[in-house]
Amino acid sequence: MENLALIDSFSEFKDDKLIDRVTLMAILEDVFRNALKKKFGSDDNFDIIINPDKGDMEIWQRRVIVADDDLDLDHLEITLTEARKIEPDFEIGEEVSEEVKLIDLGRRAILALRQNLISKIHEHDNTNLYKQFKDLIGEIYTAEVHHVRPRVVILVDDEGNEIILPKEKQIPSDFFRKGDNVRGIIESVELKGNKPQIIMSRTSEKFLEKLFEQEIPEVADGLILVKNVVRIPGEKAKVAVDSYDDRIDPVGACVGMKGSRIHGIVRELGNENIDVINYTSNIQLYITRALSPAKVSSIKINEETKRAEVFLKLEEVSKAIGRGGHNIKLAGQLTGYELDVIREGNVAEEEDDVELTEFSDEIEAWVIQEFAKIGLDTARSILKQDVNDLVRRTDLEEETILDVMRILKDEFNV
Fold first, then answer.
1. Which fold has domain 136-201?
2. Where are the domains of the chain?
3. Residue 115: pLDDT above 80?
4. 403 close to 378: Cβ distance less than 8 angstroms
5. Taking the complete model, does pTM exceed 0.85, yes or no?
6. Which of 66, 125, 185, 354 has its C-alpha lying 20 to 30 A from 286's C-alpha?
7. Distance linking the first and last C-alpha atoms of the chain
8. 290, 277 in Cβ contact below 8 A?
9. pLDDT at residue number 142
């Protein structure tokens, strides 16, 4: 039969798109039936036989033989004279099957058929792709950088699927070049028109949780449970872990000897500082652990308001708050409580203390702000600190910190 370019391309579609034979046959039959409906008004009396492996297809039209003088002839009927041209011994009332050539549909119809076929194939691919990645939501996925744009990185996986990594889903320190392999979790899949848009994230708490599963065998095996994860991407994270087996130290197993196990995770996350703590249902103990490395003196909890007053010695306050307030913020998110820091200290010394803002004529405002970020807002609170520790926890140079301390010491004649 005249299979034309359309039929020749059947096998190409099958090979290129990796569509199974049954699915391809269903798509092809649907396309041709739509074409027959447009031309004849109905496809009820047509049989379509397709062999996509060979590129063969046959269309047969079934019609009932009627008398030549029947004036109400439709596409379901054929006159006796026309029927006997096919087979001389046909009689009125019998059914005739006649092959319909593709060329009989007309050139424009054939072109429309091909376009419709391509459209149906793409629609099938997009549906399958959508289902495939819907099942992968929350799982770690690796793809290669194809194109870097100001607000988004376009990734491509081994099968040529496009994955989008938006700027807000990237860790602040992330820097990608074309050809780099990137790991993240599949966060969402949305249909834009008929095409699925696959979104990857590296900032999600789920990404960190899944990295624990990948890198720590006891987590993967279910011996250690990741109870909760909170993070400020690229800066700091807190992970609460637990184990039903008393013989397993969940924190030790996750961190490893000298941090060997967690090092790979930290590196993947742009040197994000990760605190791993033991989960407990004892909320006071949980808050105490969450505020590490600060040593908590006591805690007063209000269950109704989900607030907790945390009492700390003066020298522990800045540790509890952490650089930029990250430590106390994450501790609150991890435990589900709003944490209020209450300073404990020498009353006379505290009354003698001076707010750092009082020195604004000698100390620049941005320097005062840097100290405030780590909870140091008074003169004595700074003088209690170690210079090297302040260099590590702030963005200030050692020389600047020494100048500030000199000014503050002069105030107290130290």
1. OB fold (Dihydrolipoamide Acetyltransferase, E2P) (2.40.50)
2. 4-131, 136-201, 204-225+240-271, 280-345, 351-412
3. no
4. no
5. no
6. 185
7. 104
8. yes
9. 95
